[in-house]
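Tokens as discussed.
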């Protein structure tokens, strides 16, 4: 754990009970991977599809969501808040929406 912390500047810490010094768990930060589920602003939990994907309305579907929705493309990670696109209802256009949570 210390080597990863030194290399990246962040990582995991061991947690101890203040009164006894007993090890009680770990906490910290880790890198976000492409295969982690995420939540978008409407509350839907989504996951990037692996392997072969399908198309809808002539566009490649890259993510499926627990509300039977789907997303196009991969998260745009160039800004502090990541975004991803979804099909606008009743339209041929895509709408960008913020990703609100990433899970590990």
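Sequence:
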């Amino acid at each position: 754990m210390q080597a990863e912390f030194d290399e990246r500047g962040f990582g995991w810490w061991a947690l101890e009970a203040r009164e006894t010094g007993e090890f009680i768990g770990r906490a910290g930060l880790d890198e976000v991977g492409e295969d982690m589920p995420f939540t978008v602003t409407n509350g839907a939990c989504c996951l990037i599809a692996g392997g072969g994907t399908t198309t809808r309305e002539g566009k490649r579907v890259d993510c499926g969501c627990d509300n039977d929705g789907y997303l196009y493309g991969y998260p745009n990670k160039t800004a502090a808040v990541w975004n991803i696109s979804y099909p606008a209802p009743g339209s041929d256009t895509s709408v960008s929406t913020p990703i609100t949570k990433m899970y590990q």
